[in-house]
Inverse folding.
């Protein structure tokens, strides 16, 4: 049950009282009760006018007199809050050099701010690093990350939550849907469609041996279905199609179809040998 206050006289709960001294409430006594001396507590308040007496005499009987509280001009808090100051005595974190972990990395002096062409729409929480060049009519969803040394052409769409890890080349008229991961050293040519949740990789032997990172190369006019996975250094040929959910472990020839897990390569039907239409 929710209870709403109906009068302004409802008292606040003690848990919500502030740390300052509370204004003294007037105490009223009936005529049958003998008046008792009230000791006024000490206060640091300054009033606009001196407070009047609490009692008055009426035919030798002390009766309480209702008084409006005087206006408080200034009230000094009893409890002073200390400002929170950072502890600068702690040493800075240091990591072994072989772990390649650094805090507060700054851009090199030769880096340049990102360049974005005309008529762009970049939605909230998107991050574009330095040394990124983007053409005209660029559009993003929300939470897009585009890292350094990425070149993007004209008429490109990057969907929500997509991550482009840097050192990536993307051509013209490309549509990349939401939640796509594009690793370093990837190439996506013109007129390519990439469905949602596609995941590309660039490390053939993850964390096992030293391997030169090689991302995928998606040739002109290819179509990538949703929820697909690609091993490193695969090439998707011109005009080919990768069906949804496929795991591509080998390169796909031009105008072929990759389908299944792992993907099987089949000739593309003639009626699908047409350009992508956005």
């Amino acid at each position: 049950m929710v209870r709403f206050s109906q009068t302004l006289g409802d008292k606040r709960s003690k848990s919500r009282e502030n740390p300052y001294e509370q204004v003294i409430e007037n105490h009223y006594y009936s005529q049958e009760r003998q008046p008792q001396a009230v000791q006024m507590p000490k206060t640091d308040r300054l009033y606009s006018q001196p407070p009047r007496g609490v009692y008055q005499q009426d035919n030798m009987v002390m009766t309480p007199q209702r008084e409006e509280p005087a206006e408080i001009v200034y009230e000094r808090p009893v409890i002073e809050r200390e400002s929170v100051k950072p502890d600068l005595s702690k040493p800075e974190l240091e990591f072994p050099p072989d772990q390649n972990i650094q805090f507060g990395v700054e851009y090199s002096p030769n880096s340049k701010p990102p360049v974005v062409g005309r008529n762009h729409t970049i939605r909230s929480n998107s991050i574009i690093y330095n040394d990124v060049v983007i053409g005209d009519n660029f559009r993003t969803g929300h939470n897009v990350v585009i890292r350094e040394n990425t070149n993007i052409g004209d008429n490109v769409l990057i969907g929500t939550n997509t991550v482009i890890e840097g050192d990536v080349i993307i051509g013209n008229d490309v549509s990349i849907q939401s939640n796509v991961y594009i690793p370093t050293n990837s190439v996506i040519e013109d007129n390519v469609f990439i469905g949602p949740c596609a995941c590309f990789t660039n490390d053939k032997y993850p964390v096992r041996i030293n391997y030169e990172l090689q991302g995928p190369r998606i040739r002109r006019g290819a179509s990538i279905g949703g929820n697909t996975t690609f091993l490193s250094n695969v090439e998707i040929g011109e005009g080919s199609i990768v069906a949804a959910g496929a795991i591509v472990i080998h390169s796909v020839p031009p105008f072929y179809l990759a389908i299944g897990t792992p993907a099987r390569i089949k000739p593309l039907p003639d009626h699908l040998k047409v350009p992508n239409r956005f």
